[in-house]
Amino acid sequence: MPHQHRWHHPLCLAPRPLRPWLTESGSLTARLIAHYPCFKVRVLAQGLARPHDDERATLGLPRANVRVPSREVLLCSGDTPLVFAHSVTTPAAVRRGFRKFRHIGGRSLGSMLFASPTIARSMLAWRRVDARHPLWRKARAVVGPLPARLWARRSVFYTGPDRLLVTEVFLPPLFQESR
Fold it and tell me: What sort of enzyme, by top EC class, is this (predicted)?
C-alpha cells in the first residue's frame, strides 16, 4: 500500500506513553473521550485543498494541481490541543460512500467512520514528522511552538471503491502525560 512506504518508523522509537495511542485500532475519538471528559473537536478548515504528494499517491490522484475534499481539526481537552487531524478523500467519494464527510461539522470523523459496518480500515502506519513535513508546519501554525519532532499515524478507510485518508499528529500534552 503506497501510504505505508514512508510511514513505518520503528514504534520502539516513540515515547513509551504515546505507543498505545499510536497503535489504537479502534476509534481514537472514543479513547480520547474516555481519558479526557472535556473532549471537543475544533474545526480548522473544511473544503477543497491540494493534497500532499504522498496523499495523492495513496488516493491514486493523477495530477499535482487537483483539489480534493479535505478537513483539518484539533482534537482537544477543553482548550488544550491533543491531536491535529488531517483528512483527505476524492470528489467521487463524497458523492458516494463518504457523503457524510461534507456535512460532519463539529462532530468527530471517528463518530462517522466507526459507526458504519460498511467502512473498513487499512493497517495503521506511523512516523515521526518534523518541520520538513507539511502537517508539522500546519500544526505549528495552529498551536504555536512545537518540539522538533512529533509522531503521527495514518490509515485509509474504505467503503466500496471509495477511500478516505486520515492522518493524526499527536501533540505534546498527549504524550507527556501518563494515561
Answer: lyase
CA 175 – CA 129 distance, rounded (Å): 15
Q: Torsion over CA of 105, 108, 111 and 112, rounded to 10 degrees?
A: 50
As a whole number of angstroms, the distance between CA 9 and CA 23 comes to 13
Domain boundaries, the chain: 2-176
Give SS3 for 112: helix
- Cite the annotated binding site for substrate by residue number: 71, 109, 168
Determine contact, residues 139/171, Cβ cutoff 8 Å: yes
State the amino acid at position 176 in one-letter form. Q
pTM tops 0.85:
yes
The pLDDT tens digits for 11-53 are 888 888 899 999 999 999 999 999 998 999 999 999 999 998 8
83 near 168, Cβ under 8 Å?
yes
3-state DSSP assignment of residue 171? coil
Annotated binding-site positions: 71, 109, 168
pLDDT of residue 107: 87
Report residue 84: phi and psi, to 5°: -100, 120
